[in-house]
Amino acid sequence: MKNTDLNFEAAAGIFAQYGVDVNKAMDAAAAIPVSVHCWQGDDVTGFEKGAGGADGGIAVTGNYPGRARTPDELRSDFEKAVSLTPGVSRINLHACYAEPVSGRSQDRDSISADNFRNWIDWAQSKGFGIDFNPTFFGHPKASDGCPLTNRDPAIRDFWIEHGRRCREISAEIGRLTGSSVLDNFWTPDGSKDTPADKAAPRARLADSLDRIFSFKKYDRSVTVDSVESKLFGVGCESYTAGSHEFYMGYALSRNLIICLDAGHFHPTEVISDKISSVLQFFPEVALHVSRGVRWDSDHVVTLSDELLAVAQEIIWNGFSGRVRIGLDYFDASINRIAAWAIGARNMRRALLIAALTPYQLLRDAENSGDYSARLALMEEFKTLPYGMVWDALCERCGIPAGKAWYDEIRKYEHDVLSVR
Ligand code: RNT
Ligand code: ZN
Question: Is 186 near ligand 1, meaning CB less than 6 Å away?
Answer without folding.
Answer: yes
